[in-house]
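lol forgot to send this yesterday, sorry. struct tokens for the thing we talked abt
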């Protein structure tokens, strides 16, 4: 019986790997990826709300001439599920977040600390209860 899972491939003695043609890959090639929405958002075209963890098929591309400490920055293109308008955002490794570029606006207030605006009402600190005697 032969092996069911072959780990090695047979190469004939006259095999020359330099004769295999190589294809050239474009530098800024777009890939189709499956991702989840990074935050709650609202489409600017139709007003549809999109929840934070909704899954999308997206196009991913490298942003030319932009990097942060050697890390590549990616741009994602998704479509609104209601009106098929394009929504564009890119990674922001400096703040470990995403930057809105076109087609939507964030509905959460999670980025307000950068602009100096208050992020809402803060709770007072909890008081510890003393044990009853």
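and heres what i got for the seq, position by position
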């Amino acid at each position: 019986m032969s092996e069911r899972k072959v780990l090695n491939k047979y190469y004939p003695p006259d095999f020359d790997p330099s004769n295999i043609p190589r294809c050239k890959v474009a530098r800024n090639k777009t890939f189709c990826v499956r991702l989840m929405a990074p935050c709650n958002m609202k489409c600017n075209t139709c007003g549809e709300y999109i929840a934070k963890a909704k899954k999308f098929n997206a196009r991913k591309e490298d942003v030319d001439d932009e990097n942060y400490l050697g890390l590549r920055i990616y741009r994602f293109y998704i479509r609104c599920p209601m009106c098929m308008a394009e929504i564009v955002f890119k990674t922001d490794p400096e703040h470990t977040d995403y930057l809105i570029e076109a087609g939507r606006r964030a509905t959460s207030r999670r980025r307000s600390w950068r602009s100096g605006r208050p992020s809402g009402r803060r709770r007072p600190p909890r008081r510890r209860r003393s044990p009853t005697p």
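The chain has a mean pLDDT of 80. anyway ping me if u want another try
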